[in-house]
Amino acid sequence: MNNLLFLLLLTTLAWGASFQLPAQDVNIIPRPQQVVVGEGGFTVDGGTPIRAGSESEAVARVLQDAIGERTGLRLAIGGDTGSRAPAVKFEVDETLGQEANRLIVSGEGIDILASGSAGWFYGVQSLLQLLPETDQSVESFQLPAVTIDDAPRFAWRAFMLDEGRFFKGAEQVKLLLDEMARLKMNVFHWHLVDDQGWRIEIKKYPLLTEIGSKRKSSQVGPLKWESPVQSAEPHEGFYTQEEIREIVAYAAARHITVVPEIEMPGHSSAAIAAYPWLGTAKQKIEVPIRFGVSQDVYDVSDPRVVRFLTDVLDEVIELFPSKVIHIGGDEVKYDHWKSSPAVRKYMAEHGLDTPADLQVFFTNNISQYLESKGRRMMGWNEIMGHNLHDYQDAADTESDQELASSTVVHFWKGDPALATHAAENGFEIVNSLHSRTYLDYSYESIPLSEAYAFDPVPEGLAPQYHDNIIGTGCQMWGEWIPTDGQMHFQVFPRIAAYAEVGWTRKENKDFTAFKAALPALQQRWQRKGIYYAPDTVVERQGGGD
Questions:
Q1: Structure pTM?
Q2: From 163, 201, 331, 428, the catalytic residue
Q3: Non-local CB neighbours of 490 within 8 Å, separated by 6+ positions
């Protein structure tokens, strides 16, 4: 849209006249599976009712509030749901899947069909992208006649925020949840624990937040991992259990499941700083001020440590309804275990030949514990015994232990054949290959087009195993994003590309159409104070991270 047309549109809206959306501008992110444009359209004004039954009333209120915010029109909810008079109607169609929906705009009104609340909610999100993106009030707006049939490609469509490194707070989390909902993403993967910070209140172990949530300084500088520069500024923050519950409820109202990640047995320095007996060295340490792999790891041979971890999980389970609990499991430096007489003795007693055997053995015990509580374990793909890091001795990563079959494997690193092999062996996989999905990577490393082109199904995976790839996630690791604006720059607009990766069938994706739809989202982001990366940045090609 050129500047003159944009100014004319704003002037028209300011006069309170009607807003009409041309049919050719039916641009929705993520791209629906099928769009059929008809003739004519439907005009919504202050007298247009919203008709909803008891099951759809909550979603109807979402639509009512959004239309009011965007246009100034406050549509009434009520009336005879069976009436044929023009209205916005929520209807039940039990033939549609849990998240599927059909949106019909015609001269007779707007119909949103689904089998339940998730489908209605996603139908509303499509409808809202047809509305004017403006703060100006209007007397009416007209939508083009269109029929949209839609359903997601993958069940798991995630965004991950790492707050172990830099605490962002509830306001930013809610902002992210709002944008996830708009983009039909349904899993907020919350990385709450890491070496540099413990961000969740655990009432049985108060030092986790009294000590573990604070550090004296933070590594900064253009050299990143090799930087000798420190901020010389303390950093701290954590969520109380009351705040956690509030955010979980906020997400649930947007059909987003919050999946907490509580790292074990590595990335545990903040916890060990709080309770030194948790580590293999049993020595007092400080919360690290440099980023990277941990100073120590949990002593999994110590029954007190295992009890600590299950105690923590008990409180986590009480806070998060998610059926899946993420335990991390990545980047465990085995040298710590190898140097511990107690750990070596424990391994001998249990017939564990390598540190990788020990990690799988420990992980399976945690899996059993979670299953006893009605939950399911998820972890990064090191938990399978994969050798992914140069700092590990190859012999230490060999394992004949079999990971619990109920585990959700979060693939992030290594030969894609590892993900293929896991899928062929019956594991459910969330594919978040770091070189294609990590939002802390620069736009030179992952430009917008490369983010959009990612396919979670590994090339060459036989079709009978495709259903074992349950989805994907994009990860906002936090080491180098101390400010909200830096986070916005890294996340937006790539989050929209990843949303389409998760939702839209591969054969229906179209990067040209995606780019045509993006300006409306950018206008929304600007209005909400989101400092997204400009178009001149997102398609740079070249170097990497």
A1: 0.94
A2: 331
A3: 439, 440, 476, 481, 533
